[in-house]
Amino acid sequence: MATGLYSQHLHNRKVLYIRNTVITIVLVALAAATLFPIVYMMMSGFGPNVATAGNMRTIFPSRFTLESFEAFFNFSEYSLRWIWNTFVVSAGTVIGNVIFASMAGYAFAKIKFKGSNALFALILVAMMIPYQVTQVPLYILMVQKFSMTNTYAAMILPSLCTAYNIFLCKQFFSGLPTPLIESAKIEGCNQLQVFTLIILPLAKTVLAVMAINTFMSSWNNFFWPFLVTNDPAMYTIQVGLKQFKFANETLFAPMMAGATISALPMFIMFFSLQKYFMEGVTIGAVKG
């Protein structure tokens, strides 16, 4: 009897070990496939200044050098300006969403007004519309009607308050206790004071998550800045990297160096604010 139980125990351990080994191999393979483009980009940036990808036949360069980064900054007089433009656009988009999306989310969650449900339904519908569908009417509005070509406003205004961020804030604020707000009103606070003094301090997590996601989305955005800018002085870093591609060749290593520089803020943000990334996955999932 004891021998049979011991044999069963060994069998179960063997099966568990094999299962864990297979899972580990699969996860390592998926991680390697995910990290490969990033590693290749960084190694190419730190490699010799070559014109085409065909000259980079290995992942690790023959020698490590900063000449590709030097070539990136020497390629155009606006190389540093591209990074600054990207930061301005991303920061403006984040500030706009933190202010306006949080106010709209609070209004939908805690203020009852006529047509609120219908209006919120329209916002949900807007979330389902593909991003590319809105580009033509936005382009006509910004460029042809308001003549905002090559301006920060043209790049910031369309994303100043997104439907997703309104939805995210509304879901979070709906979980806050209404008696807390009513108590503040009894003490003499108006809606603006309730929002700034009571609600915002409780919403630090959702605001941080919203700011992080919005900054990343804006920083990596290529298509819209590409549509509304034709002056190299107003390019973002993503649009500027396109200038390294010509009809007959691509300045591969400098472009990879620029891509590494453009990805650096994302790496810093992720590793320094990992806690908020994890909270962003589950925010609004549990109430009470």
CATH architecture assignment name of the largest domain: Orthogonal Bundle
CA(first)-CA(last) distance: 51 Å
Radius of gyration: 25 Å
* CATH uppermost class of the largest domain: Mainly Alpha
Q: Which range best describes the helical content: under 10%, 10-25%, 25-40%, 40-55%, 55-70% or over 70%?
A: over 70%
Biggest sheet overview: none
The domain tally reads 2
CATH topology title of the largest domain: MetI-like fold
Could you report the average pLDDT, rounded to the nearest whole number?
A: 85
Give the low-pLDDT segments: none
Structural class: mainly alpha
- Helical segment count: 14
Give the topology string: H per helix, E per strand. Answer: HHHHHHHHHHHHHH
State the total count of DSSP E strands.
Answer: 0
SSE layout and pairing:
Layout: H1 2-45, H2 67-75, H3 79-110, H4 116-128, H5 135-145, H6 152-156, H7 163-174, H8 178-186, H9 191-202, H10 204-219, H11 223-228, H12 237-240, H13 252-272, H14 274-282
Summarize the structure.
The protein is mainly alpha-helical and 288 residues long. It is 70% helix and 0% strand.
